[in-house]
Specification:
The protein is of the alpha/beta class. The protein has a single domain, classed as 5'-nuclease (Rossmann fold, 3-Layer(aba) Sandwich), CATH 3.40.50. 50% of the residues lie in helices and 11% in strands. The chain contains 6 helices and 5 strands. A 5-stranded parallel beta sheet has the order 3-2-1-4-5. Helix 1 packs across helix 2 and helix 1 runs parallel beside helix 3. 35% of the residues are buried.
């Protein structure tokens, strides 16, 4: 099964019509949901960031609807980062000063799971060898 990580920046852009990347975020999120892109993997830690943002800006009903949509979709996975990745996450956090700890968790997860691609509007991921950032609704496996 082809998989790609989906960063919080993409889902937030999808959820926020005022976000400068809204159209691209919407295209990515919907294409994944319709099975036109690889299965989207959103780490629990990124999901927390997304749902907190939506809840604060648009209210509980919209945040709950977004969560339900992602959970019910056949084309999204919402795993927790394995505890075994924490050490590698800390190392990546120290290695890449531009990374948030959430970025480091995602990069460590990608390494451990053999996932090369991440849909993200955060160019900090461009610094990491072996990871390929995608910022449009392109299918790297097509």
């Amino acid at each position: 099964m082809a998989r790609a990580l989906v960063d919080a920046t993409v889902v937030i852009a999808f959820a926020d019509p005022d976000d400068e990347d809204h159209d691209r975020g919407e295209a990515i999120v919907r294409a994944i949901d319709h099975g036109k892109l690889p299965t989207g993997v959103i780490l629990h830690e990124a999901l927390v960031e997304v749902l907190n943002f939506v809840n604060e800006r648009q209210g509980d009903e919209k945040a709950t609807h977004l969560l339900d949509s992602l959970e019910e979709s056949a084309h999204y996975r919402l795993p927790y980062a394995p505890k075994g990745n924490v050490g590698r996450s800390r190392a990546l956090f120290r290695q890449y000063p531009e990374f948030s700890f959430g970025d480091a968790l995602q990069a460590a997860f990608m390494e451990s799971e053999g996932i090369e691609y991440i849909y993200s509007f955060d160019d900090d991921f461009d610094a990491v060898d072996g990871l390929t950032r995608l910022d449009t609704a392109e299918n790297p496996f097509a």
